[in-house]
Amino acid sequence: MKDLMYGSPASLFSGKARAFLDWKGVDYIEIAPNLEIRNEVIVPAVGRMIIPVMKLGDGTILQDTSLIIDHYEAAIGGPSVFPETPRQHFAARLLECFGDEWLVIPAMHYRWNYNEEWIYGEFGRSVAPDAPADQQVAAGKMVGQAFKGFVPMLGIKEATIPGIEASYEALLADLDAHFAAHPFLFGTRPSIGDYGLIGPLYAHLYRDPESGKIMERLAPRVADWVRRMIDPAEPLPGDFLPDDEVPVTLQPILRRMMAEHLPFLIETARMLGEWHAKNPDTELPRGLGMAPFTIEGVAGEGAARTFSLWMLQRALDYRDALDRDDRAACDELLRSVGGEALIDFTMPVRLAYENHTLTVASD
Ligand SMILES: N[C@@H](CCC(=O)N[C@@H](CS)C(=O)NCC(=O)O)C(=O)O
């Protein structure tokens, strides 16, 4: 039996997984989960409704794009989306974390504040493809309300919108300049960092019609990159730049991560340490409370999400396993983009993601 991905066109993380699977040349089929699949397949297997979910030929269920990508990288081998050299690899993993866990903010802002009615129709077509139009919209609203509920939790409010938009527009300009020089982040082959960015930059910021117009107008080369990412010309082409080069055009993007996302991650880690000291035997919550952030000079607060720390931990685990010289090269890269705070940062407790659940690791 072929591998199966339960995913949907409007889903951020389905877009990340699909772009990777298509580049890697994985033989799979994608099915949009209707209400029955949600209730009878995904929720019983994963414990909650979430996509994408990969069902392998032998029945194994994989959830989380990181595990899906790790699985196929190991199973298929061949050219990898993980660069072999330290600076490129570490930077790519940091950018994956930034795309997955921070750019969800502009993604959700533009979806819900510029495309709300359209997205209800999309959700309806996806979950109830055979239902009459009115029931489809009702089903779409039901699914959509849950996601709309995340908007204030992410810190998207009247007061923060100017900062979110200024930051996104500056990011687009920086990416547009980068893609004038390179087809992907680190050369002619997409990296795990490209896949982190494609999640938010495809479904919400390119495919949602009003967002797509903004991207085409402000950063046409980013829209071209989105098309290269979602429709690879042939499987597995390209190489990473020689000499472990992290292009200078990526510096402003890494710098933005260090200025906006890193302080939020460090505060989230502090909250995790505090929470764990008080609740050593309690199930890890998805959110630890609200944490402050600053985006283009605008202050806000958003839910401090434990999952973001697992993504950061994955990047740091890579860096921490390097030998002294390679680690020094990563630290130098951090210094050059304002990421000094990450040099001596350690997680207050280790996290593990097992059986579709994030926990404090027992070791
Ligand atoms: N980190 C996960 C996140 C998956 C995720 O958040 N999926 C969204 C749709 S794009 C979802 O189903 N969310 C439902 C929820 O979080 O309650 C991944 O990489 O797969």
How would you characterize this protein structure?
- The structure is a single chain.
- This protein has about 375 residues and is of the alpha+beta class.
- It folds into three domains: about 5-75, Glutaredoxin (3-Layer(aba) Sandwich), CATH 3.40.30.10; about 85-110 and about 150-245, Glutathione S-transferase Yfyf (Class Pi), Chain A, domain 2; about 250-360, no CATH class.
- The chain contains 15 helices and eight strands.
- The chain has a four-stranded mixed beta sheet, sandwiched between helices. Strands 5-6 form a two-stranded antiparallel sheet.
- α5 (about 105-115) runs parallel beside α10 (about 190-205) and α11 (about 210-220) crosses α12.
- The longest helix is centred in the C-terminal third of the chain and has 28 residues, at about 250-280.
- The chain is globular.
- About 45% of the residues are buried.
- The mean pLDDT is about 95.
- Bound molecules: glutathione.
- Glutathione binds next to α1 and α3.
List the helices and strands and how they pair.
Elements: E1 3-6, H1 12-24, E2 28-31, H2 35-46, E3 53-55, E4 61-63, H3 65-76, H4 86-101, H5 104-114, H6 116-127, H7 133-148, H8 150-153, H9 161-181, H10 192-207, H11 209-218, H12 220-230, H13 251-278, E5 287-295, E6 298-305, H14 306-320, H15 324-336, E7 351-354, E8 357-360
Parallel strand pairs: 1-2
Antiparallel strand pairs: 1-3, 3-4, 5-6, 7-8
Helix pairs in contact: 1-3, 1-10, 4-10, 4-14, 4-15, 5-10, 6-7, 9-12, 10-11, 10-12, 11-12, 13-14
The structure holds glutathione (GSH).
